[in-house]
Each structure stands twice: as structure tokens, then as C-alpha cells.
Amino acid sequence: MKSPEPAVDALRGRRTPAAAASRAVGRGARSPALPGDGDRCLVLWFPGWAVTAWALAEGVDAAFPVAVVAANRVVACSPEASAEGVATGQRRREAQSRCADLIVLPADEARDNREFSAVVECVERLAPGVQVVRPGVCALRSRGFSGYVGSEAEAAEVLLEAVVTGLGVTTARAGIADGLFTALQAAYAGDPVRIVPPGGAAAFLAPLPVSRLGDETLAGLLPRLGVHTLGEFAALGAPAVRDRFGEHGHRLHLLASGRDPRLVRPRVPPPELTREQHFEPPLALVDQVAFTVRGMAEEFITALTAAGLACTELRVEVTGEQDELVVRTWLTPGVFEAAAVVDRIRWQLQAAAGTGLHSAVTSLRLEPVVVDALAHHAPGLFGSGTDERVHHVLSRVQAMLGHDGVVTPRIGGGRWLAERQVLVPWGDRPATVQEAGGGAVPGGAGPAPVDRPWPGRVPDPLPSAVFGEPRPVQVLTADGGTVGVGERGQLSGAPAVLVDGDTRRRVRGWAGPWPIDERTWDPSRHRRAHRFQVVDDAGTAWLLVLQGARWWAEGRYD
Amino acid sequence: MKRAPEITVPRGELLERLRAQVARSEARIRPCPFPVPPPLTVLLPDGGLKAGAAYSLEVGGALLLALLAGPSQEGHWCGVVGMPEFGAEAAGNAGVSLERLALVPDPGDQWLASTAALAEAVPVIAVRPSGRVRESDAVRLMSRLRDRGGVLLVHGPWPRAEARLSLGDVRWAGVGDGYGHLSRREVTVTVVTRSRPVPRSVRLVLPTPEGLLAAAVPAPVEQAAGLRAVG
Q: Which of A238, A515, B130, B175 could form a Cys-Cys staple with A509, CB 3.0–4.6 A?
């Protein structure tokens, strides 16, 4: 099986600091430090991991031709696609011409890594000390585990089976050999499990082509020198290789002769930062929950602080007795502290009570969505800056009044004044048009874009008072009838009296009607109204709206 | 020995010198007042909004926005408490920086606690008290403001306000009997300060067609006719 994956591996091996360190170890004490019979290495390889990761992330069974493409080249494909003739390294157009119904996906390294961590956890449950070589390849020292299970073959079988039962991934292959490089080549060899006996690494590697070293320069140069296989390369004298190809060539020469100086470096499992608490019996009052979770919030923040992290975005999941799940992500311009976390939980419960949550709370989960290095948020030596102090007091007022108690205004688009000023609760990210659905529903969930002409908006100067909830008024003609606008925009009479609550004022000047007819294509949001500007005899100017037969005040100029 | 020449300084000159010294040290302690638009500087005794003082405004609206705009453009944060109908877009046009503006639209009974909390870090606070203001509350809030160097703009009456600003003789221009649209308003702003109890007035255009504040120029005859058509 010819694939470019070994190339990627060797390149990465050269770049990572861990490999550099192990190389230094290998160089410092040359031959004696080379892996002996004790350093058996077990490698699990998942061919076409990018495709598997996509299938796991999307929750689909990739039983159809799929290829993942990066920089216009296929980097991974499903077995169905391989059967049609798609291979890694092909151009996208070529792959599509081989297989017409090929699904082409863009590469996503983050997704590959994310999904692979589930595999690593699955393996770590049985055998600790796993090194992630790259997404799709992990290695561990085989000696302890195979001694425990019985034999090396059984160890590999147990791990493969665990991955199949745990995640449903059946494509995995295992290789066991002396050293990482040889074990990886054994995994590539094609059988589900391939074991190279101790001391047999050189013999196993000998027939493989030099391209397996993953170095393009050498893979091109060595065949021209008459060296085609790893065995032939290993047969060259080490001093000669070092003279000709330098330190890097020397390292590859060691790999080819089956003496990989790299040792398996087990990863340190990341600390568990997510906290979850179950309530038994379920709690029905917001205050009860807020009181009970205080300890958990403290613990959550302490764990983050101990890891040197500061949480700036927090996800709170509340589960009710009737299996309702209330999820919300909270942001803060500063750093979450325990009291702030409890506040967020309280606000979320208050907002959800009666709408999303109809029963007592059974469990609560805190998850840090975005974390930052704590050092970036340490208070300065000479006190914090103005904005930091402002954030502090605004958060305090917010704790007094609730999340919506403190807002900052943003100007959005739209024809109505109240619609144009978007009030964002302090700490929240203003919703952008992209978040509101890519502009497919202007004026829908998020604010409309401000940089559009918006014909029909109020001319400057704008009223200094904007009523968020329209304020009902009455506009009467001189003979006491309500002013109306006919089908063709003609007035039933000139406005003469403005009734605002209990006060009646004579109209001294007016302008209008200015028709607004928006969203005619959407019956549920269609709005047709007429605007007027009216100046009363006290000198107050009003912006009034006539919709149907009802008058509202939209704004006041005072 | 060395004190002898000082005694020879004439009494009046010594007094002047001491006064200057006191003023200098006072200026060092008291930060310079927050700026206000130029036409208003003549009305206020310090030529601006004095830190640690409260100003009582008879009406909010455009005058309040104009007063907020000066400090906001200097980079100060502004807070607005208890004004649910605050027009943010008009504020932006008047020159208030919306990035440094925090609104507490509906604090209810906790307006005083909210204002006091904001006063810790927000130097310019506009507030509309809900209900009557008690003298003792006002004194406590003012002492915090003096401590922090903030200024309070109150929509409504306020005990011991530094100055009271009111609007009168309002004339809107631009709107007729069914035509035109509101373009500008001429008002007379009257200020009564504690140090100068005699009211002083100035004729202003507030807002101008751009939403700003400007001094009113004596209108030419034909424009006056236009204004008369409104009224």
C-alpha cells in the first residue's frame, strides 16, 4: 500500500521537540542507548482517519465514497472510494473523474484531533501511556500490556476490539516491532495485526522502498544512486551516510536499519476541567440550586486556576426532571470568578423557569468553552486600568439587577428606531448578521445590517427618546374624530389634537403621512404603517405611527 | 534673618500671592472640569461640569446628550440610569461614544444603589430618580462622587444641585401644516447656579439638523417668517 502518510510522519517526527529531545538522547550515548529487546512498540494505525473523524463527528456511517481534500490533493479516502480507484495524493479533479459520486470534504485538522482523542481515551482505559503520533496514529510500549494480556498478538487484538466496541471504528490496524518507525511500517503492512519479532526489524524493513523514510530529497536521490530499498540504504556505512547527508541523513539511516532511537513518550492526560453535579432529590427553587452549586463553582474555578487557565466563555447545562436540557453559553469581558459563575447559573435558571424548564433541576454541568492563559489576566502591579474597573462595577450592578440589567447600545439596521438600537447585555457578544443566519433572514433573529440604505428611515435629527414599547396615543381632527389614512394615502382630516394619556395638546405643526410597507413577502412579519411628525403647543415634537386604526408614539424630540 | 525681606512685601501683593498659591494647590487636587459644548461654557461658573457636583436638568433629551458628549469624547465612560427610552442613535449622533456608554434602563427601586455602584468607576452618570430623593441619600452619593471625581446629571429635581438647567421658548423649524420635516429647534437654556442665583440664559440651536448643539445666530427676517409659520 503506497501512501504518503509515512512521509508526513517522518517530517513531523523531525519537527516535534519530543523527537528532537529523543534524538539528542540517541546521539549522546550512541549504540548502547538504542532500543533493546525491552523497547517493543505497539502502533495503532487508522487508515484514512480524516474520513473516519468526519463520519464520527457527523454521526454517519461512511459506507459511500468519501474523500478528504487539502490543497487540492486527496489526503484520505474511504474504502469505497479506494475501490473506485481514488488514492491519496491524487488531484481532486482526477479523483472525481475516477468516481463520479465522490463526496469531497475539506480537511479539518481540529476535527481530526478532536475525534482522535476519543480513540486515545478508549485505549488509555486499557493500557496507559499512549503517545499520539498524529491524528490517526498512536503508539504505546507493548511490553507491560502484552505481559498482562498474555502475548503481543492478544494485546493488539484486545486494543483493536476495544476500539471497535467503544467507537465502532473497524478500520484500525496494529503493528508491533522494535522501535516506533518499524512498528509503524508493520502497521502499514496491511494485515490487521503484524508482529515483527524482536531483532527482526532490519530484515522486515529491508525490502521496503526508500520512499517510506518520508524524505522527498532522499527518496529522489537514493534511487538515482542505485539504492532502492531500505535494506540497501542500511547497508551503506554510517560514517559515509553522515558525511554525505548530514545529521538528518544519519537519523534516517538509523531508522532504515531498524534502530529507531525514538522512545514512546506517553502523553499526560489533560486535567478534567468540566464539572457536573447531580441533585438528589431534585431542586425546585433557584436559590436552592444557586446555594448548592456554590461549592462546585469554587472547585471549577480552582481547578482552572491550578491549570494556569482563566475561563472567558462558559457553558452551563441544566437538566430538568422531565429531561429538559437548558444550555446557554455565557461570556465575560474579564475572567469568570466563582461568584460570577453562580450569578450566571441563577440568571439562566430565572430565564428558563416556565419557558424551557418545567420541572425541578436534577443535574448541572459547567464547561469552560474558551480559556486563556491566566497570566494574560493578572492584575497589573499598579492597579488595573479604567476599563477593568468599569467592568467590575458593571458586573456588580448586573449581579444586583440581573443579566439584562446593564446593557450597552449598538446601532443596527432597520426602519424603526427601536429596531435600530440593539441593546446588548454587558459581557455578551453582539449578535452579528452572520450568526443570525448569514443574512438569509434580514431582521429575523439578529440585527439587520446597518450599512444598507433603509429607505423610509426617519430623517435626522433623530428623537432623543425612543419608546422600546410603543406608547399608545390618540390623534384627533378638529371635530373630534380619529385621524385616519385612506387606501391611497389620503388623510381623513388634518391632525388638530394630540391626546397622550390624560393630557390633551393642540397640534401646532405636523408632517406626513410617510408610508412604510416592509416585508411584503412574509405575511407573518409584513408591516404597513404611516409615520407623522407632530409638534404640540408645548413645543414638544413627536414621532407618531399610525398602524391600522391605532396611533402610537415611536419617539419624542425633547 | 531671612524673613526680613518678606515683611517688606506690600500687604495687597502678599494676599494676591497667597490666593494664587491656594488656587494652584486647589487645581492640583481638583481635576479640571469636564468639558461642555462651547455655547454653554459661559453659563456654568467653572466653564464645564465640576467633578463631584450634581446638575439638575428640567428636561432630559437633547440637552442631556449634549452634556454627555463632551466628557465622552474625552474618553470617559458614561452611565445612564433609569431612562428606558434613551435614544442611543441620537446619542451617537450628538457625539456620545457608544463604546463607552453603559445603560441601566430599568433599575426600579435600586436606582440609588446602581448609581452609587457605577459612581465607583464611571465618571459621568445621568440618572432619573424614581420617586423622591431623600436628602441623606443625596449627601452620601455626592460624597462618593467627590471622592471619585465624578459628575451627576439628574433629570428632575435634586437637593443641593450645583446648577439647574431648564429649557424655554422652544421653536421647531422645518415642519409645516402637513409638509416638511423637523430640521432644527431653537431653545433658550437657562441656568441657575448656587454661586450665581441670578438666572442666565443663552439662545441655542438644539438639536441642529445633524443632532448637535450650536449657538443660535440671530435669524434673518425671511427665516423668522418661516418660523412663524410653525407656531
A: B175
Q: Within A358-472, where are the H helices?
A: 386-401, 417-420
> What is the count of structural domains for chain A?
4
Q: Quick one: which of A305, A289, A391 has its CA closest to A342?
A: A289
Helix extents (H) in A59-140: 79-83, 92-98, 109-124
Interatomic CA distance for residues A245 and A217, integer angstroms: 10
Residue A258 C-alpha from the chain's centroid: 41
Domain span at residue B62?
Answer: 38-230
Cβ of B180 within 8 Å of Cβ of A511? The answer is yes
In a domain, B127, yes or no: yes
User: How many A/B residue pairs have CB atoms within 8 Å?
Assistant: 167
| Chain B residue numbers touching A553 (CB-CB < 8 A) | none
Chain A residues 407-426 within an 8 A CB cutoff of chain B? 407-411, 417, 420-421, 423, 426
Measured between beta carbons, the chain A residues lying within 8 angstroms of B87 are 417, 421, 462-466, 555
- Nearest chain A residue to B209, by CA: A461
CATH code where residue A283 lies:
3.30.1490.100
**Domain contains B30:** no
Q: Which residues pair with A409 in a beta bridge?
A: A423
Model confidence over B124-170: pLDDT tens digits?
999 999 888 899 999 999 999 988 889 999 999 998 898 999 998 89
Q: Is residue A222 part of a domain?
A: no
CA distance A375 to A353: 38
Is residue B18 included in any domain, yes or no? no
Provide the CA B144 distance to its chain's centre, in angstroms.
19
| pTM of the predicted protein model | 0.63
Residues of B whose CB is below 8 A from A555: 87
Identify all chain A residues contacting B189, using CB atoms and an 8 Å cutoff: none
Q: A428 and A546 share a domain? A: no
**For position A135, which CATH number holds?**
3.30.70.270
ipTM of the complex: 0.81
* Among candidate residues A203, A230, A253, the one where a domain is terminated: A203
Q: How many domains does chain B have?
A: 1
Q: In this complex, is the C-beta atom of A556 within 8 Å of any C-beta atom belonging to chain B?
A: yes
3-state secondary structure A29-47: CCHHHCCCCCCEEEEEECC
Residues A131-179: tens digit of each pLDDT: 888 899 999 988 888 889 889 899 999 999 999 988 888 889 999 998 8
A203 touches chain B (CB under 8 A): no
Q: Are residues A439 and A536 in the same domain?
A: no
Q: Which amino acid is at B165?
A: L
User: Which of A386, A423, A462 is opposite residue B90, by nearest beta carbon?
Assistant: A462
Residue A57 included in any domain: yes
* Structural domain containing residue A537: 465-557
Choosing from A159, A188, A203, the residue where a domain stops is: A203
Q: What's the pLDDT band for A97 if we cut at 50, 70, 90?
A: very high
Nearest to B62 among A421, A464, A494 (CB): A464
Of residues A401, A467, A510, nearest to B178 (C-beta): A510
Q: Which of A86, A83, A45, A46 is nearest to A69 (CA)?
A: A86
Determine the Cα–Cα distance for residues A510 and A298; give it in Å rounded to an integer: 61
Alpha carbon A458 to its chain centroid, in Å, reads: 41
A429, A388: one domain: no
Burial of residue A22, with CB atoms counted within 10 A of its CB: 0-12 exposed, 13-18 middle, 19 or more buried: buried
Q: Could you tell me the CATH number of the domain that includes residue B115?
A: 3.40.50.300
Q: Do residue A430 and residue A472 come from a single domain?
A: no
Phi, psi at A88, each rounded to 5°: -65, 145
* β-strands B101-104, A130-134 pairing: unpaired
For residue B28, is it within any domain? no
Q: Do A462 and B59 touch (CB under 8 A)?
A: no
Neighbours of A304 (CB within 10 A): 20
